[in-house]
Protein backbone atom coordinates (compact mmCIF):
# COMPACT_ATOMS: atom_id res chain seq x y z
CA UNK A 1 0.00 0.00 0.00
CA UNK A 2 1.31 3.41 -0.90
CA UNK A 3 1.49 6.15 1.70
CA UNK A 4 0.85 8.72 -0.96
CA UNK A 5 -1.55 11.50 -0.02
CA UNK A 6 -4.59 12.21 -2.15
CA UNK A 7 -3.92 15.23 -4.36
CA UNK A 8 -5.09 16.56 -7.74
CA UNK A 9 -5.00 13.79 -10.39
CA UNK A 10 -4.51 11.02 -7.78
CA UNK A 11 -6.12 7.70 -8.66
CA UNK A 12 -8.11 6.78 -5.56
CA UNK A 13 -9.80 3.50 -4.64
CA UNK A 14 -12.28 3.82 -1.80
CA UNK A 15 -15.41 2.69 -0.09
CA UNK A 16 -17.90 5.46 0.55
CA UNK A 17 -21.35 6.19 1.87
CA UNK A 18 -23.44 9.32 1.48
CA UNK A 19 -25.99 9.72 4.25
CA UNK A 20 -28.60 12.25 5.27
CA UNK A 21 -28.36 13.90 8.68
CA UNK A 22 -30.86 11.38 10.09
CA UNK A 23 -28.46 8.55 9.12
CA UNK A 24 -30.47 7.21 6.18
CA UNK A 25 -28.19 6.02 3.38
CA UNK A 26 -28.48 7.75 -0.01
CA UNK A 27 -25.66 5.80 -1.68
CA UNK A 28 -23.00 3.36 -0.44
CA UNK A 29 -20.55 0.82 -1.82
CA UNK A 30 -19.34 -0.58 1.54
CA UNK A 31 -21.27 -3.80 0.79
CA UNK A 32 -19.71 -4.24 -2.68
CA UNK A 33 -16.52 -3.61 -4.62
CA UNK A 34 -14.60 -0.40 -3.93
CA UNK A 35 -14.89 2.46 -6.41
CA UNK A 36 -11.92 3.94 -8.24
CA UNK A 37 -11.79 7.47 -9.63
CA UNK A 38 -9.23 10.14 -10.51
CA UNK A 39 -9.41 13.39 -8.53
CA UNK A 40 -10.71 16.04 -10.91
CA UNK A 41 -12.32 13.65 -13.45
CA UNK A 42 -15.84 14.87 -12.61
CA UNK A 43 -17.13 11.61 -11.10
CA UNK A 44 -17.29 13.20 -7.64
CA UNK A 45 -18.57 16.68 -6.85
CA UNK A 46 -15.71 19.09 -6.00
CA UNK A 47 -16.87 19.42 -2.38
CA UNK A 48 -16.51 15.66 -1.89
CA UNK A 49 -13.10 15.61 -3.61
CA UNK A 50 -11.81 18.50 -1.49
CA UNK A 51 -12.73 16.55 1.66
CA UNK A 52 -10.47 13.68 0.54
CA UNK A 53 -7.35 15.76 -0.15
CA UNK A 54 -4.45 14.77 2.08
CA UNK A 55 -5.91 11.37 3.08
CA UNK A 56 -3.82 8.20 2.71
CA UNK A 57 -4.57 4.51 2.08
CA UNK A 58 -6.05 2.87 5.17
CA UNK A 59 -7.55 6.07 6.56
CA UNK A 60 -11.23 6.42 7.37
CA UNK A 61 -13.24 9.57 8.02
CA UNK A 62 -16.72 11.05 8.09
CA UNK A 63 -17.14 14.53 6.64
CA UNK A 64 -20.04 16.93 6.91
CA UNK A 65 -20.85 18.25 3.43
CA UNK A 66 -22.89 21.46 3.41
CA UNK A 67 -25.36 21.97 0.53
CA UNK A 68 -23.03 24.53 -1.08
CA UNK A 69 -20.27 21.87 -1.33
CA UNK A 70 -22.68 19.09 -2.25
CA UNK A 71 -25.68 19.34 -4.54
CA UNK A 72 -26.25 23.08 -4.10
CA UNK A 73 -29.22 24.97 -2.77
CA UNK A 74 -32.64 24.58 -4.38
CA UNK A 75 -33.02 27.05 -7.24
CA UNK A 76 -36.45 28.68 -7.52
CA UNK A 77 -35.93 28.76 -11.31
CA UNK A 78 -35.98 24.96 -11.25
CA UNK A 79 -39.62 24.99 -10.12
CA UNK A 80 -41.71 24.82 -13.29
CA UNK A 81 -45.46 25.29 -13.69
CA UNK A 82 -46.76 22.97 -16.42
CA UNK A 83 -50.30 22.73 -17.82
CA UNK A 84 -52.17 19.80 -16.30
CA UNK A 85 -53.36 18.56 -19.70
CA UNK A 86 -49.74 17.72 -20.65
CA UNK A 87 -49.92 14.86 -18.14
CA UNK A 88 -52.97 13.26 -19.81
CA UNK A 89 -54.77 10.77 -17.56
CA UNK A 90 -51.70 10.20 -15.38
CA UNK A 91 -52.51 9.87 -11.67
CA UNK A 92 -50.46 12.58 -9.98
CA UNK A 93 -49.44 12.81 -6.35
CA UNK A 94 -46.94 15.02 -4.48
CA UNK A 95 -43.51 13.38 -4.40
CA UNK A 96 -44.07 11.40 -7.60
CA UNK A 97 -40.92 11.42 -9.76
CA UNK A 98 -41.53 11.74 -13.50
CA UNK A 99 -38.93 11.62 -16.25
CA UNK A 100 -39.04 14.55 -18.68
CA UNK A 101 -37.01 15.16 -21.83
CA UNK A 102 -34.57 18.05 -21.51
CA UNK A 103 -33.44 20.36 -24.34
CA UNK A 104 -30.85 17.83 -25.52
CA UNK A 105 -33.39 14.97 -25.43
CA UNK A 106 -31.73 13.57 -22.31
CA UNK A 107 -33.76 12.46 -19.30
CA UNK A 108 -34.49 14.98 -16.59
CA UNK A 109 -36.25 13.78 -13.43
CA UNK A 110 -38.85 16.10 -11.94
CA UNK A 111 -40.76 15.74 -8.69
CA UNK A 112 -44.43 16.70 -8.50
CA UNK A 113 -44.54 19.40 -5.80
CA UNK A 114 -48.24 20.33 -6.01
CA UNK A 115 -51.03 20.42 -8.57
CA UNK A 116 -54.62 21.43 -9.21
CA UNK A 117 -57.02 20.90 -12.14
CA UNK A 118 -55.16 23.31 -14.43
CA UNK A 119 -51.49 23.50 -13.36
CA UNK A 120 -48.80 21.16 -12.04
CA UNK A 121 -45.76 22.47 -10.12
CA UNK A 122 -42.72 20.32 -10.92
CA UNK A 123 -39.46 20.57 -8.96
CA UNK A 124 -36.41 19.95 -11.16
CA UNK A 125 -33.89 20.59 -8.37
CA UNK A 126 -31.61 17.69 -7.46
CA UNK A 127 -33.32 15.64 -4.70
CA UNK A 128 -30.30 16.29 -2.45
CA UNK A 129 -30.23 20.06 -3.09
CA UNK A 130 -30.33 21.98 0.17
CA UNK A 131 -29.45 18.92 2.26
CA UNK A 132 -26.56 18.61 4.71
CA UNK A 133 -24.86 15.29 4.02
CA UNK A 134 -22.49 12.93 5.83
CA UNK A 135 -19.73 11.58 3.56
CA UNK A 136 -18.19 8.46 5.06
CA UNK A 137 -15.02 7.18 3.40
CA UNK A 138 -12.44 4.44 3.77
CA UNK A 139 -9.45 4.91 1.49
CA UNK A 140 -8.20 1.61 0.05
CA UNK A 141 -5.40 2.83 -2.24
CA UNK A 142 -3.87 6.02 -3.65
CA UNK A 143 -1.70 6.14 -6.79
Structural write-up:
The structure is a single chain. The chain has two domains: 11-71 and 129-142, Chitinase A, domain 3 (Roll), CATH 3.10.50; 76-123, Beta Barrel (Thrombin, subunit H). It is built from one helix and nine strands, in the order E-E-E-H-E-E-E-E-E-E. It has one helix at residues 46-52; strands at 11-20, 25-28, 35-38, 60-65, 79-83, 97-101, 107-115, 119-123, 133-142. Strands 1, 2, 3, 4 and 9 form a five-stranded antiparallel sheet that branches. Strands 5-8-7-6 form a four-stranded antiparallel sheet, with no helix packed on it. The N and C termini lie close together (9 Å).
Keywords:
Chitinase A, domain 3, 4-stranded antiparallel beta sheet, 1 helix
Draw up the topology in text.
Elements: E1 11-20, E2 25-28, E3 35-38, H1 46-52, E4 60-65, E5 79-83, E6 97-101, E7 107-115, E8 119-123, E9 133-142
Antiparallel strand pairs: 1-2, 1-3, 1-9, 4-9, 5-8, 6-7, 7-8
Amino acid sequence: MSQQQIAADSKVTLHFAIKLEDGSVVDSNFEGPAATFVVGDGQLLPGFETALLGMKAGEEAIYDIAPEQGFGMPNPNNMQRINREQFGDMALEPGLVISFADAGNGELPGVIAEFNDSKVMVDFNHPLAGKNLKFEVKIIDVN
